[in-house]
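## Example record

The block below lists the input lines for one assembly entry, exactly as stored, with component labels intact.
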Amino acid sequence: MPEMTHRERIEAAIALRKPDRVPVAPLILQFASRFGGITCQDYLFDGEKGEVAVEKTFDGLGGWDAWPLFVPIQGRSLTMRPIKYRFPGQELGVDSSYQVVEEPYMQPEDYDVIANEGYGAFFKSLHRRVYPEYRSEELGAVRTQLREFQLRNMKKWEDRGIPTISGAMIQTPLDDLIQYRSMKELATDLFRRPDKVLKAIEVMTPVLAETGKRGAQGSGAMGVWLGGLRSNSSFLSLKQFEKFVLPSLVTIVNTIVDSGQIVYLHFDQDWTPNLPYLKELPKGKCILATDGTTDLVKAKEILGDHMCLMGDVPATLLTLGTPEEVDEYCRQRIEIVGAGGGYILSSGCELPIDSKPENVRAMLESVEKYGRYS
Amino acid sequence: MADKLADLLCELEEDAVLAQARERVSRGDDPLEIIEECRRGMETVGRRFENKEYFITELIMAGEIFGAVMEIVEPALKGRQAATIGKIVVGTVQGDIHDIGKNIVRTMLRCSGFEVYDLGVDVPPEKFVEKIKEVGAPLVGLSALMTTSFNPMKETVEAIASAGLRDKVKILIGGGPVNEKVREFVGADAFGKDVTTAIELGRNYLGVK
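Predicted structure tokens for the full assembly:
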């Protein structure tokens, strides 16, 4: 088979065709700090240092086929969301990865605010409550700066032949609510005030769909990152999934796909029982990226002729495993999940900051060793 | 009538459970009996979770209802305590602030009769050692969500050993990325993939049932 470009390889996999070989695209968030020789603090808060570290990481490891998300990730872009974090160099050591502080930022009465005043108005008011130090005019300026930085980096990598899969990031409405309410409070809301939760989700759905669609349009990226971290069987029942997740998921994906873009489903935790529902999403237009918890072999059986699969070298294997173990894991994934195309090898969720470089190399090299299609 | 409270609890009928608990307390029923019935309800909840009829949302909701019942019966206990099966010290290890999983495990352990000492998050090894000594707990549960927490977990196990407590306590670990490989690296006695496994391991180590 003639050699494909990186973009052609990824596009073939998404369209469920056979590329020349299995593409590989690890999710690089904070790993590039330690491997790139800078602190995680500098990586997150000094854009130029971050860019250099990303280039050093890519070149030092011999490269790959795509960035699942624009790089480098910026600490300030995280604080554009109305939730708190602990950051390296602030509350944490300079070389630690950032962590989300999960608290009930949103109160039960806020469901009515979403329903009556809209998601945008609620989002702004919650952000003011969580980050009173940001003034609103400043917020707009920061957003613009961050966006320009992301666009410039996506362009830079595209010029080097490495496409970015996700040019904008959203998550399911329920996942947004879980982060604002905290997992514990949201769980009780599903029993104490289900109608209010549902109404809020209905209001949020078109707003998130448009945010994702417009955010990625014109960015040069292939599509939109749609996160599903807890809206699966690791948290809720199938009955709850059908009610609180599936309708919004279908609407959001269809809106984005109708605009000519693809959807990168960044689905952590256990989606195995939820897999059959994903057949409702448009064929050949989504990537299902899992973190090692979902049974990817089962996903191949159920969705292999419907959706590109991506993943899922587990975080623990990358940090505590040996190169031989990683090689063997990847070989099996390539042979089973990669059979006939429609598969992209990747880390399960983020490549951990403390992944052993030799393990990352073993993952990257496995696609040449085992992944050539005839 | 005897099992009504247990049934209502495992069906997550919050209002009915609380109404009945209040009524029975005001009627002068034995508060320990009320707690015991709720525990039976929680056991059913745990079984349903194991059978994948219930999920984390149901566990959290059941734990909330159980906690509310405890508040209602508390004054009537007048210092008496429900029988416990053993002590366990739990916490999220140093450098890690994730506590959702740990809190669910804590609640379910309490409902299962464990006396739980929760040290919170970002707990340094010496805090675990101090608490184990102070309360004489034969069980410790270490939680972590990040791969970077494996080393602090290992250091905690080592600190427990240096304090001469290693053969006096069983160390259980849990959290998203934790598996047999991590258990081996850390030097813990066992890992729990979910909350029901954690309870079962704890009971086995204590020799209960």
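Residues 158 and 187 of chain B are 8 Å apart (CA to CA). Chain B is about 55% helix and 10% strand.
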